[in-house]
Structure formats: C-alpha cells, structure tokens
Write a structure and sequence with these properties.
Layout (H helix, E strand, L loop, with lengths): L2 E5 L6 H9 L3 E5 L13 E3 L6 H11 L5 E6 L4 H11 L6 H8 L1 H10 L7 E4 L2 H11 L3 E5 L9 E3 L5 H10 L6 E5 L4 E10 L2 E13 L5 E7 L5 H18 L4 E10 L2 E6 L9 H10 L3 H9 L16 E6 L5 E7 L1 H5 L4 E6 L6 E2 L10 E7 L2 H13 L2 E4 L4
Parallel strand pairs: 1-2, 1-4, 2-3
Antiparallel strand pairs: 5-8, 6-7, 6-8, 9-10, 9-12, 10-11, 11-14, 12-13, 14-18, 15-17, 15-19, 16-18
Length: 401
C-alpha cells in the first residue's frame, strides 16, 4: 500500500485525511501538537512541527521504504516542507526554491512585479524607519503584512502614519524573517481561486466569492462557492492565475490564489502552492460541484494519473461557509446547536471551542472558531439556510448569565 505524508493535522486537515483513506492510501500525519485532532483519523501520527523541514527530511529518509512513502500533501501553509519531502522522494513536483517563493510574500511580489503580473504594489521593510519611508511612497490607506505567515496573521490596514509603529511591530512578530510588507490597499470584490496544474495545463477548479469584516484586520467572515461571474471575468481570472503561476515557477500541483477586482480589473494578492484552507477545497467545492480537488492533488502527489471526474463538475449547486462571531469572553455554553445541525440546507457545523474556553478579540483568521456550511440550488437558498441555522444558535458568555 502506498503512503502519503499529510503535513499538519488540525481541524482543517481532517477532510484531507479522510479523502486520502478513501483513495486507499496509508496516511501518515505530522503536527507539532501531540493531541492534534487529525491524529485520531490517520494511520501513523508523527509529532513534528509542520515547519521543521529537517525533521521531515530525516523522518522520510529513514522511513520511505518501510512505509512505501510515495508523496506528500500540504495540509496548511507548508509548501516548503512538502517540496523538501518530494526532493527526498525524487518525484516530479515544484522545486524547494519555487515553494519558498510561494510561501514568502516578498519573494512572490518580486517575481510578479518583475514580470508585470497585475498585483498591488509592495515594499519590503526591515525597520520602522524603512516602513515610514515605504508608507510615504505607497500612501495611505495601506496594508502592513507579515512576510511569511498565513490566515492574515500580522496583517493590518492603517489609515495614517501614526498607526504604523504598532502595525509594523505586529507584522514582524508574526514573521519568521522579522520583516514586513507595506502594500498598496485596494478595495474591491475578493475571490478565492482553486487551481491545479496538470501536465502544464492550469485547471481552474473553483472561484468562490469572499466576504471580510473586522477592519482594520482582514478576517474572512464567509465564502460562497461558486461565484456568479461571466465568461469574460472567468477568462481574466484564468489568465491572471496562469501568468502568476508561471512567474513563480509553479508548473505542477496546486496553486491557491487570492484575487481582488476593482475598477481597473483583477489583481492577484497571494498564491501559495497548496489548496485552500477555510473549508473551501474541503467542503464547499465538493458540495457545490461534486469535484474533489484534494483527491486530485493527492493522486498527483503519489505519481498516479488524475481521475478527471475529480476535476470535472458533476452538478451545479451553491455552498456557503460562514462564521459566527460572538463577542469575546469566557464561553459558558452554546444553545441550539443540535437544532441547527438538522436545519434545512445545513451540511456541517464546525466548532473548535467549548464551555470554559475563552473567545479572544478577532484579529486574524486563526481567531475564528465557529462555522456553518450550507448548500442550496441557488445562491439565495444557501445564504438563507445559513441565516436560519444561525438564528437557532445562542452563545452564552460569562457576563451574560
């Protein structure tokens, strides 16, 4: 039996673990958390930090023949770790250099700005003084971002120079390089685009509309899959994804794009060499279209031909994944949960906190903890099903008693 290494084993990786087993693969999961929820579902759990490249290389080198390890899958923002594993296995995949570009916003931006790929202007800064000079060039409002983190950790919108110092400090705190980006702020419609590159051809699997709130932080509150766009918009998105991937050197495997559209057209914000988090590839795409991007990427990873049914729409529905954001405080209980689970159109409710846990202030996507996933024959049905389920749920916070 072939084995696949899934790097990361948190709540968002559980669907990938299950899908790998459906493909008949032996699943080895790595995660620094010895109690990671995904360890309950895999065949072998290995407590290695997902960013620990040397630890993964040592493990795979020692065990590749014992477990017949044939490939690896990025369960989170760990394309570099996966690329390192693939180099040990000597299989066709993106290079470690390409993976590093896809995980580092400045390396990414340098490629796109050089190749004239449409993207907001950015300046890499290493000190507050450099950041102040960058803001004068970029102008305000602007985004201050961590260079190499995900889930909008360390990202903040500033509207005047007086807000820069704290934003810069936070961005550097969340960056392994201890540096930041000052980026042009663009207001517009945002999209999450799943693509897989197979034999040099870019396949657009899904384009979902994204909704954000909690400014000055950039937190996704919901996405709806698929978005309703016309052929011209779709072709513009595909061309942009293709150009961005080529610029980075992503010529095989997954590429997840964050794209924004304003009055001047589409611009790409980021493109890690992985599939999405946020339950896009895990739930809403399979629910709305019947496609299985995770399975397709896994087949590529272990050297198998991709089943075209996994990347061909099987149906036309809509699926919504949206969060609920109760106020911060100590969580006492959640009422109405069982009733909401059987509400019309509800496919899944995911909650990562329970009684006694603290709800923190919402500063990045990692602070979210409650999602409802629905479906419908129309966009409106999926949205209405979410609103109905949401109306049944009540969070009891300590001071509410």
């Amino acid at each position: 039996m072939k084995s696949i290494v899934i790097v990361s084993a948190g709540i968002m990786q559980v669907p990938a673990i299950k899908k790998a087993k459906e493909l008949g693969l032996n699943v080895i999961c790595t995660d620094k958390n010895p109690n990671a929820v995904g360890f309950e579902y895999c065949d072998l759990s290995v407590p290695i930090d997902s960013k620990d490249i040397k630890g993964h290389i040592d493990f795979v080198t020692k065990n590749k023949d014992i477990y017949n390890i044939k490939g690896a899958f990025a369960g989170s923002d760990v394309a570099t770790t996966v690329a390192a594993i693939n180099s040990v296995l000597n299989i066709k995949a993106i290079s470690l250099e390409t993976a590093e570009r896809s995980n580092n916003k400045w390396l990414m931006k340098q490629s796109w700005l050089r190749d004239k790929v449409a993207t907001p202007n950015s300046i890499h800064v290493t000190t507050l003084n450099e950041a102040e000079k960058a803001v004068k060039i970029i102008g305000v409002p602007c985004m201050v971002k961590s260079v190499d983190n995900a889930a909008s950790r360390g990202s903040k919108l500033i509207v005047n120079i007086n807000e820069l110092a704290k934003a810069f400090e936070s961005a550097c705190e969340y960056s392994r390089t201890k540096t930041a980006l000052v980026e042009e702020y663009i207001s517009g419609k945002e999209y999450s685009v799943e693509s897989i590159i197979i034999k040099g051809e870019v396949h657009i699997i899904s384009v979902a509309e994204r909704h954000f709130a909690f400014l000055p932080y950039h937190i996704e509150t919901a996405h709806i899959d698929p978005v309703d766009i016309n052929d011209k918009q779709y072709n513009s998105i595909k061309n942009l994804v293709s150009s961005a991937a080529k610029s980075l050197g992503i010529d095989v495997g997954p590429a997840k794009s964050d794209i924004i559209e304003d009055s001047s057209g589409f611009k790409i914000l980021e493109m890690p060499a992985r599939l999405s988090g946020g339950f896009h590839s895990q739930y809403t795409t399979p629910i709305s279209t019947g496609m299985e991007p995770i399975k397709a990427v896994m087949q590529l990873a272990v050297g198998e031909e991709v089943d075209l049914n996994f990347i061909t729409p099987q149906r036309k529905k809509y699926s919504m994944c949206a969060g609920i954001f109760p106020r911060p405080g100590k969580l006492i209980s959640i009422q109405g949960l069982e009733e909401a689970k059987v509400s019309k159109g509800v496919k899944e409710i995911i909650c990562t906190k329970g009684p006694g846990d603290f709800i923190t202030e919402y500063k990045d996507n990692g602070d979210r903890f409650f999602w409802i996933i629905t479906d419908g024959a129309t966009r409106e049905e999926a949205v209405n099903s979410f609103e109905l389920a949401k109306s049944k749920i009540k969070f009891i916070i300590e001071s509410d008693k």
